[in-house]
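Below is a filled-in request sheet from our internal design queue. Each sheet records the structural input a requester submitted and the sequence that came back. We keep these sheets so that new team members can see what a complete request looks like end to end.

REQUESTER: design group, bay 2
PRIORITY: normal
MODE: inverse folding
CHAIN LENGTH: 203
BACKBONE (tokenized):
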């Protein structure tokens, strides 16, 4: 059923937007296949992909709270990931965290899997910035994580917000199961160490 959120209660939506209908018929099944996880509460997935500019249309809360939570969860995930690297130098581990836990990396993951296409929004500026960023990635291919210095434009924060909100949604929907979140994270991205260099790159 099409539903809206009222506090902590979900109720039928009378006139869902086209995006909302498409989300359930196409976007969500593809997402669940990608991360190999089925959402018990599908509305939390919708919320993760709803920008504030679209909120009044379907009365779905924006992703901001899930983004906040996802940011915290990702710190834990990335901390464990980096801890498990075959590296004894704590200084290099700290450096790796500084390079990997960034909006740049999360934005690249979002674009890589087309998660940005799932976002419900009414923000023309996002489309312009998003297209410019994708063109940059297409022209430059797989760059090392330090590509921040090479990109003349600003990485759209909304792209990283989407990834953080998704992680927050999985965390809440799974009953705060970090093992499940970590599994979904690993299906979305992987990193390799650059030979003879002290940092990683996104595969």
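RETURNED SEQUENCE:
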């Amino acid at each position: 059923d099409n539903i809206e959120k009222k506090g902590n209660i979900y109720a039928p939506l009378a006139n869902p937007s086209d995006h909302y209908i498409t989300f359930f018929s196409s976007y969500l099944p593809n997402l669940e296949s990608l991360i190999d996880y089925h959402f018990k509460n599908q509305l939390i997935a919708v919320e993760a992909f709803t920008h504030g500019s679209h909120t009044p249309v379907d009365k779905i809360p924006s992703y901001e709270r899930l983004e906040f939570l996802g940011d915290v969860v990702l710190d834990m995930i990335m901390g464990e990931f980096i801890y498990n690297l075959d590296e004894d130098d704590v200084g290099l581990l700290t450096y790796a965290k500084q390079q990997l836990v960034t909006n740049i990396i999360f934005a690249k993951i979002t674009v890589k899997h087309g998660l940005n296409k799932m976002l419900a929004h009414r923000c023309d500026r996002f489309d312009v910035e998003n297209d410019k960023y994708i063109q940059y990635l297409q022209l430059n291919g797989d760059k090392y994580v330090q590509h921040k210095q090479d990109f003349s434009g600003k990485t759209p924060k909304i792209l990283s917000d989407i990834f953080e909100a998704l992680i927050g949604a999985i965390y809440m929907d799974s009953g705060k199961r970090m093992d499940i979140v970590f599994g979904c994270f690993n299906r979305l991205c992987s990193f390799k160490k650059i030979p003879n260099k002290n940092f990683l790159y996104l595969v």
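SHEET NOTES:
- Residues 1-12, 144-152 have pLDDT under 50 and may be disordered.
- The two ends are 38 Å apart (CA to CA).
FILED BY: M.R.
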